[in-house]
Design goal:
Elements lengths: L3 E7 L4 E5 H7 L1 E4 L6 H12 L4 E6 L7 H5 L2 E4 L4 H14 L3 E4 L5 H16 L9 E5 L2 H4 L9 H17 L5 E7 L7 H4 L4 E4 L5 H11 L16 E6 L3 E9 L23 H6 L3 H5 L15 H9 L18 H17 L8 H14 L9 H13 L3 H4 L2 H10 L4 H16 L6 H8 L4 H13 L4 E4 L5 E5 L4 E2 L11 H4 L6
Parallel strand pairs: 3-8, 3-9, 4-6, 4-7, 5-6, 7-8
Antiparallel strand pairs: 1-2, 1-11, 9-10, 10-11, 12-13, 13-14
Helix pairs in contact: 4-5, 5-7, 13-14, 15-18, 17-18, 19-20
Length: 505
């Protein structure tokens, strides 16, 4: 059955009709700054459609409770538990009663939780009760915010999920969402995008005007017109009203909101005893107890949350065990490890063996020398072997710049750390840059081209900057360490001392 309701007049004086059946299938988005006439538009829509379709109004300010006087809406005060609101919503769909959910007096988080429970009850109703319902949500940016605010993540997720179900999946269940917002930029995009009908009112911010123009298919330059719209004037677009942007003036309403716009009223003549009237309490005030406004109690923790907290409980970590080696023997233990490292580095073939083979050799040598304590892990050996190969002196090893070099090397793959540390050591000491053959031997290769690729890799990571002097000698600078090597011949022979330099004692 086709039902057209009168929303007001068009620019030429013709009645602006809205196809109610098409609206139920395609949903509606109303946008306008405060004072643009959004609530007036929603009231006109509710009054005109009240005889034809069941209505549920999510009212955060209590403005629409006056519909009960003339049109028989039942006012549901939200000061109930979430379970009660869910059951009430199910009975509303069963008995097809138009209602106004009054959220006045609740803070924002409580309003979001109540609205989510109520919309969830409408959405989860039994299939036999899926009759058409016009669900009007005023100030929708409160219930479907684009970004997280001061409310808890749980409340935001509940409310946003309920609004998404209403706009995205509600049509098959007979729920037709009509949402109104002051700011399109504050409304979640996945909620706003599901509406096919739009009524755009007065808007001043550029970001909101641009989004409104995009939704209406208008040019960005035409968006300036939204600043000039008068109160109660909107631009309509959608299959329920017009296939092209249509200026509409909303008609009069039969009921009034409890809150009205402020009107200028002349001040009364100032009484002579104005000071006494302000600072002297009346006898009635003296008898009244002082009321202390307390914040609303937090919502009770659900059983599911308590079980989740218990499941996430972790016992206190055990106390660290006493070190196997006495503190006085730590220096001796480190010295024995260094001696084993020097023996391995002294082997000419060590540069061409894999780290796994060198690690096994290291473990055997430690057992031969009876090195006490737990042996190094493979990762610790690889790291220590790379540092030992760099062979820094004690002064450099204790400096902050060498610690910075160690931190930088940790960002590289394990097989490249030794190459980086050897070049960094040369830069810190001002020594000539190692040749390609030396770098290749440190890496465990005979290919000079592999050495050049290693330097290029470090340069791509921003660790090195390479240049050549007038004689073709290579200079490698480290921006992070603030130093550079002396010129060195990249085509020079292998420097066996540099390629197998042991760690300093």
């Amino acid at each position: 059955m086709k039902v057209d309701i009168d929303m007001g007049t068009q620019s030429g004086g013709k009645a602006a009709m809205l196809d109610l059946e098409e609206l139920l299938a395609t949903r509606l988005l109303v946008q306008g700054n405060s004072g643009s006439g959004k609530s007036h538009l929603l009231r006109r829509l509710l009054e005109q459609s009240a005889p034809w379709v069941q209505q549920c109004v999510i009212d955060p300010e209590g403005d629409f409770v006056t519909l009960a006087e003339k049109y028989g809406h039942v006012v549901v005060d939200a000061e109930r538990t979430e379970a009660e609101l869910t059951r009430i919503a199910a009975r509303i769909r069963q008995h097809r009663v138009s209602v106004v959910l009054n959220l006045e007096g609740l803070d924002v988080e409580q309003q979001m939780r109540c609205a989510a429970a109520f919309l969830g009850g409408l959405f989860d109703a039994e299939r036999d009760h899926w009759y058409p319902v016009l669900v009007v949500v005023d100030e929708a940016q409160l219930f479907a915010p684009a970004v997280a605010g001061e409310v808890s993540d749980e409340a935001r997720k509940l409310s946003l999920g309920a609004m998404t179900n209403l706009m995205c999946r509600g049509r098959k269940r007979g729920l037709a969402g009509v949402i109104a917002t002051q700011r399109l930029a504050k409304l979640a995009k996945n909620v706003a995008a599901e509406a096919s009908n739009f009524l755009m009112g007065r808007t001043f911010l550029d970001i909101d005007m641009a989004r409104a123009a995009d939704l209406l298919g208008m040019d960005r330059r035409q968006s300036e017109m939204f600043r000039d719209l008068a109160r109660g004037h909107f631009v309509a677009l959608g299959p329920a009203m017009s296939r092209r942007p249509l200026p509409v003036t909303i008609g009069a309403v039969e009921t009034n909101a409890r809150s009205t716009s402020p009107k200028l009223t002349p001040l009364p003549d100032a009484p002579d005893d104005a000071r006494d009237l302000i600072f002297t309490p009346s006898p009635e005030e003296a008898r009244q107890p002082i009321m202390v406004r307390r914040p609303p109690p937090p919502p009770p923790t659900s059983t599911a949350d308590i079980l989740a907290q218990l499941a996430q409980h972790r016992p206190e970590p055990p106390q660290p065990a006493e070190p196997l080696l006495p503190l006085i023997a730590e220096a001796e233990h480190a010295q024995m490890i260094d001696e084993v490292m020097r023996e391995i580095l002294a082997d000419p073939d060590a540069a061409f063996r894999s780290v796994a083979v060198l690690y096994q050799d290291f473990l055997v040598r430690c057992r031969i020398r009876r090195v006490p304590g737990e042996p190094l892990t493979l990762a610790a050996f690889r790291r220590r072997f790379a540092v030992a190969r760099a062979g820094v002196d004690m002064t450099t090893a204790g400096s902050d710049v060498w610690q910075q070099a160690l931190d930088l090397s940790a960002t590289l793959p394990d097989d490249i750390q030794g190459v980086f540390l050897v070049i960094a050591q040369a830069a810190l000491a001002g020594a000539p840059c190692p040749s390609d053959a030396t770098i290749a031997r440190i890496y465990g290769s005979h290919s000079p081209s592999r050495a050049r690729r290693l330097i290029a890799y470090c340069e791509e990571r921003g660790l090195f900057v390479t240049r050549l002097d007038f004689r073709g000698r290579r200079i490698v600078a480290s921006p992070d360490l603030g130093c550079e090597t002396a010129p060195g011949d990249p085509n020079g022979p292998v420097d066996l001392v540099q390629a197998a330099r042991p760690a300093a004692e």
